[in-house]
Amino acid sequence: MRLFLDTADVEEIRKGVELGVISGVTTNPSLVARVKRPLKEVVREICALVPGPVSAEVLARDTAGMVEEARQLAAIAPNVVVKIPITEEGLRAVKALAGEGIATNVTLVFSPNQALLAALAGATYVSPFVGRLDDVGADGMEVVRTTVSIFRQYGFSTQVIAASIRHPMHVVAAAQAGAPVATLPYGVLMQMLRHPLTDVGIERFLADWAKVGIAPGS
Ligand code: E4P
Questions:
Q1: Where are the alpha helices (DSSP H) in the chain?
Q2: Predicted structure pTM score
Q3: Distances (CA, A) of 174 to 13, 158, 190, 212
Q4: Is residue 125 in contact with ligand 1, taking CB distance under 6 Å?
Q5: In this structure, are residues 111 and 133 in contact, taking their beta carbons and an 8 Å threshold?
Q6: How far is it, in rounded angstroms, from Cα 48 to Cα 136?
Q7: Whose CA is nearest to atom 8 of ligand 1?
Q8: N or C: which end of the chain has fewer CB within 10 A?
Q9: How far is Cα 6 from Cα 9, in angstroms, rounded to an integer?
Q10: Best substitution site from 42, 129, 166 to test ligand 1's pocket, by max atoms within 8 Å of Cβ?
Q11: Per-residue model confidence as pLDDT tens digits over 85-128
């Protein structure tokens, strides 16, 4: 399983990559708006930091506009993946882009049927939004589980990215579901890492060692 960071904040990405656990990044227009920088400039900088896939989303809503924006984004760096929303226009764009060898991440996926259509159109990734489904009283992770099992059954190469991850147990559930990727906010990555008993354990080891009065490293 791979973990991506869901952010456009370059500092967060730098810190995540330094930890050795982050192999890709996903962004969306809201995340890029938050850093108040031009999209292409941010994507270029992120692509230089991260060796793996970096998803950047189109803003156009018609097929021709999406394809044109996708070409421009893909020209920024070889690891750009173009995020396309799951609409009729989006599916046509995904098909056209697959024909041009441009990687896509079909976004705003809320059902296994949408994911199936994205895979059939030639998407490289599909992103079911777990947290947003949970928010409306549905079982977001069920969409990940069902989609992973459908893709396995038919040997689709399209990879599921468990997205809209809100807390560490979402990551555990995505891993149990067999999702090849989960994309998470930096805060959730830190929540995965930290445990109060780890902190207590470190303190206790250091205190016990200090009692003997032998210098560390000797
Ligand atoms: C996925 O690629 C999206 O950027 C993201 O996961 C959306 O998450 P949110 O529902 O927390 O905005």
A1: 10-18, 29-35, 39-49, 63-74, 88-99, 112-121, 130-135, 140-154, 168-176, 186-193, 196-212
A2: 0.95
A3: 21, 16, 17, 46
A4: no
A5: no
A6: 37
A7: 164
A8: C
A9: 9
A10: 129
A11: 999 999 999 999 999 999 999 999 999 999 999 999 999 999 99
Q: 28 vs 43, 56, 108, 175, 210, CA distance in Å?
A: 11, 6, 10, 23, 49
Match 């098909």 to its residue by tokens: 95
Residue 132 Cβ inside 6 Å of ligand 1? The answer reads yes
Tokens describing residue 206 = 């250091």
Pull the structure tokens for residue 8: 């456009």
> Residue written as tokens 């021709």?
64
SS3 119: helix
Query: Using a 6 Å cutoff on CB, does residue 164 contact ligand 1?
Result: yes
Among all chains, which residue has been given the structure tokens 């421009």?
72
Token pair of 155, please? 């040997």
